[in-house]
Amino acid sequence: MNKLLAVSVLVALLALSAESFRLPRQAEEEEGTLTKISGTVKSYYDSAVDTVSGYVDSIKGLKLEEKAKNLYTETSTVVSTYAGIVQDQLYHFFHH
Questions:
Q1: What is d(CA 26, CA 95) in angstroms, rounded to the nearest whole number?
Q2: How far apart are CA 9 and CA 15, in angstroms?
Q3: Whole-angstrom Cα distance, residue 33 to residue 94?
Q4: d(CA 80, CA 72)
Q5: Gap between the Cα atoms of 22 and 30, Å rounded
Q6: pTM for this structure?
Q7: DSSP letter at 1?
Q8: Which listed residue, of 29, 37, 70, 86, carries a Cα 20 to 30 Å from 44's Cα?
């Protein structure tokens, strides 16, 4: 009976140590796979950022932002002028 108990304990220890050796190997493989996936995602992200940065630089080269500001300024000036004219016309229409 003592021999059976000793053999059972040794077999259990051997099985546990064998499983403990197997787990780190699987974890390393998973880390390797995750590392590959994250590396691929990061390269796609970097590529997208570089492409968008190129587009932004080309747009800045065209000075569209300055043109848009000028268009807004001119439009707001014209609208305020015509709004003042309409306001004067309505004032004179209702008060005279």
A1: 89
A2: 10
A3: 79
A4: 12
A5: 13
A6: 0.36
A7: -
A8: 29
Model pLDDT for residues 21-63, shown as the tens digit of each residue: 545 555 555 567 778 878 888 888 888 888 888 877 777 777 7
Helix ranges (H only) for 1-96 are 2-61, 64-95
Task: Look up residue 96 and give its amino acid.
Answer: H
**Looking at per-residue confidence, does 15 or 61 come out higher?**
61
User: Reduced to 3 states, what is the DSSP secondary structure of residue 62?
Assistant: coil
Distance CA 80, CA 32 (A): 64
Which pLDDT value is given to residue 24? 52
Cβ count within 10 A of residue 3: 7
